[in-house]
Design goal:
The protein is α/β, with parallel strands linked by helices. The chain has 2 domains: 4-239, TIM Barrel (Alpha-Beta Barrel), CATH 3.20.20.70; 252-312, Arc Repressor Mutant, subunit A (Orthogonal Bundle), CATH 1.10.10. The protein is 35% helix and 18% strand. It has helices at 52-63, 86-96, 114-120, 135-142, 150-163, 182-195, 219-229, 253-263, 268-275, 279-291, and strands at 4-10, 14-19, 26-27, 41-42, 71-74, 102-106, 125-128, 167-173, 199-203, 234-236, 295-300, 303-308. The protein has an 8-stranded mixed beta sheet. It has a two-stranded parallel ribbon with strand order 3-4. The longest helix is centred in the middle third of the chain and has 14 residues, at 150-163. It binds iron/sulfur cluster (SF4). Residues 27, 29-31, 34, 36, 39, 78-79, 107 line the site of iron/sulfur cluster.
Amino acid sequence: MKYLFGPVNSRRLGRSLGVDLVPIKTCSLNCIYCECGETTNCTDAIAEYVPTAEVVDELRECLQACPLLDVITFSGFGEPTLHSGLGEIVAFLRREFPEYRVALLTNATRFDDPDVRRAVLAIDVIIPSLDAAGEDAFRKIARPAPGITAKRIIRGLVELRREYRGEMILELFIVSGINDTEDELKKLKEAIAMIGPDRVHLNTLDRPGAVEWIQPAPMDRLRFVADFLAPYPVEIVGKPAHAGPVRPAGGDVANTIVATVARRPSTLEDLSSALGLPAADVNRTVTRLMNDGVLEKRQSGRGNFYCLRERT
Ligand code: SF4
């Protein structure tokens, strides 16, 4: 499978089959906390980055086996709404596999475009991120492609909310000292009032980010932010929504581990939970992949994370 990964136990969505529509790492932002590393192609251009027909074929092949999933999620190595075939792929899923919920993780930079908004209207859950409403803080955290501003993102989200009937969960990624000051939080609160999401999720660093210096925000700071944003329904994102066993979509454990850690660095515990296998079995495969030079280990807040080994 080239464009599908997982299923993984998503902290918010449960057992999630990932769909990746852009090559590593194509995004309109270069967030300092990105778990996929630095953006190498920072662009807001919309294009068919990978063949739409091949993505549809992979989805058909995978879903015909009726995998046990909570959701199919557009996410991965970059920004899915940059792909010109997103609407066509969503329509395919709705038509041929209506039993599966569909979700989109997005940086919301392209919702100023009516065609992009139209492409996502049939999705069940949209989780857009908005890390700052003030331009300075936004630039520090998101390091955007030219022309992308916090104002443009907020305008696009207001338009989307007007047209979209599904669930919208706005995600705020808290970076202590940048977007959690009272001044920044006031601007964010005003933006939330304009957009009107169903819920707000507060997130902080869980895996190694794109820059070394970023640290997770402490829990008491997250609680302060949640209280500040009241009365909006704010949740601090915690444990996986579903902790049950998940079988790899492609059936091959080593390939699934490689595809998963390529998109999100994972601990042994993460991988064991995602694959529904004892940690000892996952450890055996991970050790083999380390010995073969495929994976490497990086120490970060939650422990040892396995990532694809950087080629020199
Ligand atoms: S976190 Fe998302 S929006 Fe930010 S650089 Fe990574 S893929 Fe792009």
